[in-house]
What does this fold into?
Amino acid sequence: MTATHDVVNPATEQVVATVPSATAEDTDAAIARAAAAYVGWRAVPPGDRARLLRRFAAAVDADREHLAELEVANAGHTIGNARWEAGNVRDVLDYYSGAPERLFGRQIPVSGGVDVTFKEPLGVVGIIVPWNFPMPIAVWGFAPALAAGNTVVLKPAEVTPLTALRLAELARDAGLPEDVFLVVPGKGSVVGQRLVDHPDVRKIVFTGSTDVGKAIMAGCAAQVKPVTLELGGKSANIVFADAQLERAAAAAPYAVFDNAGQDCCARSRILVQRSVFDRFLALLEPAVQGVRVEDPTRDTAEMGPLITAEHRAKVASYVPDDAPVAFRGTAPDGPGFWYPPTVLAPVDPAAAAAVDEIFGPVVVVIPFDDEAEAIRIANDSPYGLSGSIWTENVGRALRVARAVETGTLSVNSNASVRYWTPFGGAKQSGLGRELGPDALDAFTDVKNVFIATDPATEEPS
Ligand code: NAP
Ligand code: MG
It folds into this structure.
């Protein structure tokens, strides 16, 4: 009998679908099909590959509302967020549909001949996706991978497979050749592990926890398999006394409570210059209480539930009864894995809530005295994913942006992800960059070819 997984709506606790759970043998079969399809896919002329990706983007566009509804039911995302996420799949496919025709190599001056480089695809790419942003994280891997001529086997998180399975159908409807883009739902320890271990998978893209990411990197080392890692974060939102405090405070809740805090870029540490600390907290309180935590199918919803009961228990463990709760927002009663937005202050910087990635709607607020101290606190973390700097002083904005050890930063904004620009982490937040022009490097190898034109002058070796 085939094993299955019941997909639960985190806002209602009702089972919304039952999905087969693939075995290691199923995974091997998918990898074999993707490896066979690679031969044909890499040979598809660039213009035709581009056209197929544009058709895939158009199919996603036509199905946007359906995809969004699937994500609301599967992951508890607010309908507004889920619509953005489905649109992001379309946009990222459109963006990388420009790549096949622009995957330029170089011509390098040498003696005795001509030297050119090619950006060759790698083969079968295994993409392992977490549950927090099932659609965007999937497309950030598969769109550039396919554009560069690779085939893809994608494993969604066991608890959130529905949109990935739908995207595989849309790819087929759009005319992508059979087996070029395969989605294999199942357990990380089974399907994910097999992708890491199988010699015909030539690249792994993993997004998820830092611990699993380290194990995957070690697994890839056995075959010197390249790996892109997008791991955890504990990003700092640094507010200087010269910032537009009202704007910074109004935006801060959404920088950490969006997606119920289940965001690797969540600004879960707010660092505030001491001279404006009290005023900032006074502005933050109504902003937090104003976050609409409600039925995610409502257009007005700004935050939904957490993904599972287990995850809620983990988040709640960071807020014991004696925790320094400054104030908190609201959350519905009744079924669903709800947790209210929670602000902790003052917090001991060594406390677990100030150090660990909570991955829920809990934020700590910490004072600092000057620029040097803000940078020191921001960097006092094994993570280095994103962050924000709020100041009206351009020199300070650039100084601090250069000094904070993260892969992505925003000034007077909390945006982390723009598909035109590279995204990824420093330190233990990850390895490699997704999105923007950089992502294509993660899915190609440079091949150098020398062609002798004048054997008489050719240099030995
Ligand atoms: P996780 O365990 O790292 O899972 C991420 C993905 O890896 C899932 O598809 C998972 O499959 C798969 N996986 C698990 N073990 C594997 C293995 N041994 N080999 C190959 N693949 C494997 O993350 P999680 O359990 O979903 O979340 C735990 C914590 O990770 C969160 O609380 C949060 O702190 C962090 N997290 C970070 C991000 C991020 O964007 N940086 C995203 C999600 C989670 P299954 O789902 O089937 O187990
Ligand atoms: Mg896990």
